[in-house]
Specification:
Length: about 325
């Protein structure tokens, strides 16, 4: 919904009538019907509105002494009443700029529908719009305040992820990455972030069911709203989460993305080392990679003392062989 689209569809000839306004409102309410219940269940503490139409409405409210700039349903009805009395779009309203005038009514109608469907009492116009939010996000990333990390951690908390285990897997995965990044030509910063987020999220599906939880995890990561993450980033995260255990999901994983395949391999191995609680801690893990050959070097005594981990790694040899990678276990 938008002020331009609504204006073109219902007021293309510049005339305004109660019948046309009702049709426009109903069209907007129909758009909101599928999503309104989720918002109503959560309720509202504060409502902020962003971008041109909302800031224009706030200015009109203040200029006409209808409020201090706060938008209410009553103020929206007063604006609509002005248009009905005039009968055309070219109405003059205090506080309304000339460039906003042709599409202003469309924006007011969209806002009215939002107030009605979402049962809003009032809305405060934000000083900034979406484009400033994107710039702020980019600035934060440059200054090491990445909103994506906060989004990942919030999702992990929402699905009761064992963060001690997740951080341990992350630490091991990043240790492996640091060792192979030069040989596999992985961009250290980008790869480490993606791998770290995947390590923190691969367990989210456990909150739904233990059986095939990696599939639940992947679905959640793919479809949840992760603020700051692009759709491409979420798709890559979901692929890593899906591929962290059992047979490699060759039918649904983008195998042509070599870097992502290799990150998945590192996550798989890190998860193996933390599958159960190892009381005596992990040994020094050395990994060497050359194209599709991987050498995993572990102390021989530690391997003998942890037969389950050894069995998991031997199973992993077969799974990686399915996608053309050779994993060698070497006792040091």
């Amino acid at each position: 919904m938008g002020c331009v689209a609504i204006t073109k569809k219902f007021f293309s000839d510049g005339k305004v009538s109660e019948k046309l306004i009702t049709k426009a409102l109903i069209a907007c309410l129909q758009e909101l019907e599928p999503v309104k219940d989720e918002f109503l269940e959560r309720g509202w503490k504060q409502v902020l509105g962003a971008s041109g139409s909302i800031k224009a409405v706030a200015k009109v409210c203040e200029a006409n002494d209808w409020s201090d700039g706060t938008i209410t349903l009553d103020s929206l009805e007063k604006i609509i009443a002005v248009y009905l009395n005039h009968g055309k779009l070219d109405v003059q309203i205090a506080g309304l700029s000339d460039d906003r005038q042709p599409v202003f009514l469309g924006g007011v109608i969209v806002l009215s529908a939002l107030f009605d469907a979402l049962e809003l009492d009032q809305m405060v116009a934000a000083d900034w719009a979406l484009r400033e939010g994107l710039l702020f996000d980019q600035k934060g990333r440059l200054e090491n305040h990445d909103i994506r990390q906060a989004s990942v951690d919030a999702l992990a908390a929402r699905f009761h992820v064992n963060m001690d285990k997740a951080k341990a897997v992350e630490k091991t995965a990043l240790n492996l990455l640091n060792q192979v990044a030069p040989h596999w030509q992985l961009t250290a910063e980008d790869a480490s972030k993606l791998l770290g987020w995947a390590a923190r999220l691969y367990q989210v599906g456990l909150d739904i069911a233990h059986n095939d939880y990696h599939k639940h995890s992947a679905y959640i990561v793919q479809n949840v709203d992760l603020a700051g993450c692009s759709r491409a980033e979420q798709t890559q995260l979901a692929a890593l989460v899906l591929a962290h255990r059992k047979r490699f999901p060759t039918k649904s994983f983008p195998l042509d993305n070599v870097d992502l395949v290799r990150l998945a391999i590192l996550l798989r191995m890190a998860a193996i080392f933390h599958r159960g609680k190892i009381k005596d801690g992990l040994p020094t893990i050395t990994i060497k990679a050359d194209s599709k050959k991987i050498k995993l070097i572990l102390p021989g005594k530690w391997i003998n003392d942890h037969p389950l981990t050894q069995a998991d790694l031997e199973t992993e040899q077969r799974h990686l062989g399915d996608i053309g990678y050779d994993l060698y276990l070497i006792a040091d």
